[in-house]
User: Which sequence fits this backbone?
């Protein structure tokens, strides 16, 4: 379940907030080196106030309502058959709430300060510096920070959750995450490849804000000092969360590459995206446990969620069990012996919780 969170700005919290923000660096890796001079100029153009407005103009209230409704219906179909008018009516209500969230997100995009000076000053041969510049998109939005965006979106997400709860379905968080994931896909299809560079980080932020407790991790870190062994370990591992998830996903692919869930085959791009997000989610809950010095988030939140949602979409216990084992090994091997002693009990608890014999 989504939880309202307020985050005090201590040195430890701010260090994790910086890592949290870096997760939303736009991706330019799919472009060839030869084309990067052109990309630089086009990104420069798209960063202007006028072009940002033109990009957002593609999403009218009517079109947003339609995209969100399609996503809501697909989500309902994924988790349960749509066999009556009431389900369609619920989908319409959910779509309305989702559209409000996206329109607020677009307000932030419109207010993102122009990158004119920084982008035009870049050498033609590289966009590395550009990555750092546009990687601050969320931090710069509306002249504020990722926290400002999170605090603005939070009441809308809580209202969205309330709409889902009206359907009296216990898979609420899974519904919300999937609906946003489907909506993101539909919206990205309406954009050019370069427009996606700017907007995709906002969509990723929204999806993760629902599913991953990064904000809560940062909030609990505020209770630690900078020498705290738990904080040091979390900071070190949080910086590696994406590479960790990618290595685990590749490892799982060797065994489960032909596995089919209700969303499709394990090795398809859509499933890869969801799997990487869920592996990041497991890590975020582990760091929440470590910083809180208890296993309640794992036992009372993550385990019930996964038990309910994974079964609904036909993700097998064997896959989940193997994933937690691989994730535990990948985490532990990146730590010093003293850190291993600190983190291992939480990794072992995760593995035991999701064991096929549990």
Assistant:
């Amino acid at each position: 379940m989504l939880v309202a969170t307020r985050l005090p700005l201590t040195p430890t919290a701010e260090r994790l907030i910086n890592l949290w923000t870096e997760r939303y660096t736009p991706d330019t890796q799919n472009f060839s080196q030869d084309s990067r001079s052109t990309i630089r100029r086009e990104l420069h153009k798209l960063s202007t106030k006028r072009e940002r407005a033109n990009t957002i103009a593609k999403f009218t209230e009517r079109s947003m309502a339609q995209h969100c409704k399609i996503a809501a219906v697909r989500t309902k179909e994924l988790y349960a058959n749509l066999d009556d008018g009431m389900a369609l009516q619920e989908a319409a209500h959910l779509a309305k709430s989702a559209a409000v969230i996206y329109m607020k997100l677009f307000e932030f995009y419109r207010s993102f300060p122009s990158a004119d000076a920084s982008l035009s000053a870049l050498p033609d041969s590289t966009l590395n510096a550009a990555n750092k510049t546009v990687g601050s998109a969320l931090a710069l939005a509306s002249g504020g920070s990722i926290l400002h965006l999170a605090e603005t979106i939070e009441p809308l997400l809580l209202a969205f959750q309330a709409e889902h709860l009206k359907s009296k379905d216990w898979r609420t968080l899974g519904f919300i995450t999937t609906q946003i994931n489907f909506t993101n896909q539909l919206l990205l299809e309406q954009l050019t490849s370069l427009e996606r560079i700017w907007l995709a980080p906002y969509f990723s932020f929204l999806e993760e804000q629902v599913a991953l407790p990064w904000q809560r991790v940062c909030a609990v870190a505020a209770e630690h000092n900078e020498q705290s062994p738990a904080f040091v370990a979390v900071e070190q591992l949080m910086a590696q969360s994406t590479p960790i998830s990618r290595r685990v996903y590749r490892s799982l692919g060797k065994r489960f590459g032909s596995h089919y869930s209700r969303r499709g085959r394990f090795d398809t791009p859509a499933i890869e995206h969801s799997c990487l997000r869920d592996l990041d989610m497991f890590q975020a809950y582990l760091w929440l446990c470590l910083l809180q010095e208890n296993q309640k988030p794992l036992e009372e939140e993550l385990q019930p969620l996964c038990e309910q949602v994974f079964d609904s979409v036909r993700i097998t216990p064997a896959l989940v069990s193997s994933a937690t084992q691989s994730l535990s090994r990948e985490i532990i091997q990146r730590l010093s012996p003293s850190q291993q002693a600190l983190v291992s009990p939480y990794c072992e608890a995760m593995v035991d919780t999701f064991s096929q014999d549990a």
Summary: The chain is about 70% helix and 0% strand. Residues 116-136, 138-144 have pLDDT under 50 and may be disordered.
